Predict the 3D structure of the following.
Amino acid sequence: MLPNDGSRTNHALRASMRRFDDEEELDLVVVGCGAGGAVLTQRLARKGWKVAALEAGPFWEPDRDWVSDEAGSHPLYWTEPRVIGGGDPVPLGSNNSGRGVGGSTVHFAGYTPRLHPSDFQTYTADGVGADWPITYQELRPYYEALEAELPVAGQHWPWGDPHGYPHSPHPVSGLGMIFQRGCQRLGIDVRVGPVAITNGRFGNRPHCIYRGFCLQGCKVNAKASTLITHVPDALAHGAEIRSGSMVRSIEIDDRGRASGVVYFRDGVERRQRARAVAVAGYAIETPRLLLNSACRQFPDGVGNDHDLVGRYVMVQGAAQTAGRFPEEVRMYKAPPPEVSTEAFYETDPRADYRRGYSVQCIGPLPITWAEHVVAEGHWGHVLREYLCDYVHWATLGVLCEFLPLPGNRVTLDEERDRHGIPVARFDYTQCDNDRALMRAGSQKMAEILDAAGAQDTVTIARYAHLVGGARMGAGPETGVVDRNLRSFAVPNLYVTDGSVLPTQGAANPALTIMALAARCADHLAGGAASA
Amino acid sequence: MKPRFPGYDVLQQAGSWDLVTAGVVLARLAPPPPLRFFTVDEERVARPLLDRLLAQDGPPEDESRIPVLEHIDARLAEGETDGWHHDDLPEDGEAWRRSLAALDEDARAVEGQHFWELKRRAQNRLLENVRTAKTWHELPASRVWNLWMRYACTGFYSHPSAWNEMGFGGPAYPRGYKALGLDRREPWEVREVDAEDPEPWARRVEAARQRQDSDHAAR
Ligand SMILES: Cc1cc2nc3c(=O)[nH]c(=O)nc-3n(C[C@H](O)[C@H](O)[C@H](O)COP(=O)(O)OP(=O)(O)OC[C@H]3O[C@@H](n4cnc5c(N)ncnc54)[C@H](O)[C@@H]3O)c2cc1C
Ligand code: SF4
């Protein structure tokens, strides 16, 4: 979307976008154009496939549609109704999922770490979670390709499978300095990066201006989102991105194969025919769609013969602890993703929990910062006093690997959205291992901040990064999709988003989701869908 | 509360903001439209409730008050929710209506007066009770509290006057920030008064706690 002539949006590319007819049988229709959906669409467009991505939300134009403002960024999120329950309900909306071309990558922070090799066999190694049907080695070339495409900036990475990054690290802000200082005093290894933010110009994308609004959509176009990375390339290679198209169900023909999707556009119900269907609607909407596609052959939802659709949805335990420092930190400057450590990522044999966590820096803006203070029980005068002190605070966040549990699931609620489609209900309850990990992670953040010289700390329990719900497995009893993301039940139906993750590690998921989608594209291009 | 950033006015930078952002932010300074969602009875409870939650203690005609009730009313009228609700709480609009009615019921039961007729200290007491209760009028109290605070803080901390109070640099596109690092400021940012006036943080919090506890409602 970024032309070379100095203007900021390539209107010609969108105006000349190929437009398929509903009646035309596409090679592939993709549901959702976020992290997974956009990469899959782009890859197959490059192979000459007739492919369209149907996206419920708008086709953003950053200059016109986005603002450098927290409250004003509300339209970026999926705010259609959803119900939450369980012992530890997980708030959705702005903290979890996006709506529009680019999906959640539009407002993601931009941390792009890889999983560790150990993540692919947590059951064998640690007796918890699940083993993946693929190995780290199989995914590695796709990680490397995407790190170059986004591209990713950061220091050499010593953890997991050690590797470097195509771009050098960004300069460090006051917040990052505090984090580094605390870790240095404790002897904890930290690194700058890895972030999908250009450091220096990249092609026609400008340098980051350190304005700190990454979670509100980067108007500068410095932070990668599939809207400005893979979508323009997909259009240039003949894909259609059909925005404002909310898919209601997948159609299954008499032979038990997917024949297309039913969707709403401008209030009108339509059908798009296709030889294969890929669902990439995020860990809540993907299970919802599969369940809402119940039909004669699949009365309990497509691919749900073994009652696996919607189960094993995971969130990372993402508690955040902030410390108060005598210096002015002004944590709103620089991208909120900057410095991180994976020193506590792997299972510690001495600990009373399995698996681990990573620690990253987080730069909440005023409204989010107020949530931190409110979480401590403050209100009225005390709330205002804490908020007035904003410039002195530095916030760290952990990502704890919470385990996949069958009871943590998406089901359909009685409530319906404005299209009359049953909305998703998400129930979530932590297990003991989750709680122990979150305690350990929170304690570590406090230690780091104390070592850096904090005079006071506040902690908020939060969750981040939903994945799972249509997990990959070795067979139909353990997974909804196979190692190539193909549904066990319907041979030409694929799931290509975060829902397929069997476990989540302690790394932010977007890069892994993109890598899996890219790998699936290679599999499809090898002739699989016609099987 | 003493200003921490004397003379700081983020609006002086508005000329350097992109037009779309400036439009959205400056609209918050315009006189709010008439209420559409809350009934008059609900408004009478909601105003003092929000004033206590956010310690907006100035007189109603005070120019510097941030119109939080109007912000919430507009959101609820337009159905602009956060995109989820708890299974044991109705959707946001209905949850607001029910909780406001319940709060006034408390006021009448405990104090024999409407919530809006009570002194601040009594209002604060009733609110602290909601914050610490488990179940409140058959609603999960902590979730009601969270709903109130979430909407209240979004309204308050999206307003430039609140940014001035906290020294926040505000929208920074297309100019960006150049001064990264500890104790560094852009030329137009104001140094926190603490630097010259070293009142310890712990003492400031304690003073705020006392303000919260004391009934300084002289009205
Ligand atoms: C505030 C925040 C910060 C984050 N920071 C990071 C980070 O730093 N690093 C990281 O790796 N991850 C981060 N994430 C998470 C990351 O953005 C997501 O994990 C990732 O984008 C998920 O990819 P996805 O393909 O599963 O779904 P998405 O990217 O969410 O895409 C799904 C798309 O499908 C569309 N859709 C859904 N249902 C339908 C339907 N029925 N019909 C048509 N379209 C539909 C949606 O509108 C959406 O655009 C962050 C998330 C948030 C909310
Ligand atoms: S900090 Fe950089 S990457 Fe983040 S929104 Fe600003 S310009 Fe974009």
